[in-house]
Each structure stands twice: as C-alpha cells, then as structure tokens.
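Same chain as my last thread, 81 residues:
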Amino acid sequence: MYIVAPIVRTPKNSEMSLSTQVKESVMQASDNLRDAIAFAARGEHPIVINLLADMISRLESLEQMDEIMEKFGSAAAKKEF
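reply #2:
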C-alpha cells in the first residue's frame, strides 16, 4: 500500500464564511438565550442555566470561527494572484 499526501483543495468562496443571514440568526439566537438566562436566574434549576450558558458559548465560538475563516480566506485569495 502506498501512502499518498492528503488531497488539499482550496475552499469555495461560499465555504469561507457564514452568510449574512446566518450571522444575523446566530446573533439573534445568542441574544434570546441571554434573555432566557436572565429569566432562568430567578428561579430555574442551575443545570438549566448551565446549559443555556453552554449554548451561548458555542454560538460565540461559531462567530469567532467565522472571523478566522474569513482571515484565512483573504490570505488564500492573495496567494492565488
């Protein structure tokens, strides 16, 4: 069996970052979850608050990953020219 280098392809422009519609939906979801935490803090079980905070953390990670993907995308576009 021969070991071949991995196939590396240049991502399409559509794969480089989230669309505006998705970004806005993620921001709205994050805002709604923050409101939910505010209400939950008054009387819900701590596990519920923890899970809501985890969801917000994941959404923020998605936003940060989008910024990183945009940076790599712009760097890759500069190399192509």
